[in-house]
Design goal:
5-stranded mixed beta sheet, globular, 133 residues, 5 helices, alpha/beta
Amino acid sequence: MSWDEAVMPKLTGSVGGKQRSGQASEPGPATALHQYECCGAWVIAAHGSYDMHSIPPLADALDAAARKHPKVVLDASDVDFADSSFLNLLILAHRTGTLRVAAPPEQLQRLFEITGTDTVLEIRETVNDAAVS
């Protein structure tokens, strides 16, 4: 048995519907997406934690929405955690269509500020503000 195997037991968990293993941390909260129309914009409300393991359903939803709707709003008010894969996805989505990010929590807002993505993304305080802007 190697030192890694002795110190860091392999755990298997499901995040965003994908199996992951070999990580010694508890699986994060489940992610969920809810979609609806608001003031002529398509809203995707993201809930939970987003990292490279849980991002694919959100990426698929943003891609599909950008293909069908002239304006897409990501309601980020219930995003608990986001890493660089989340930021990368938002930047790509912004480049391919009209994306607004609505109501990011303080932690996510700080991440946008630290990385400079707040100067690239169109961020609004509420979903309604994002939909009508």
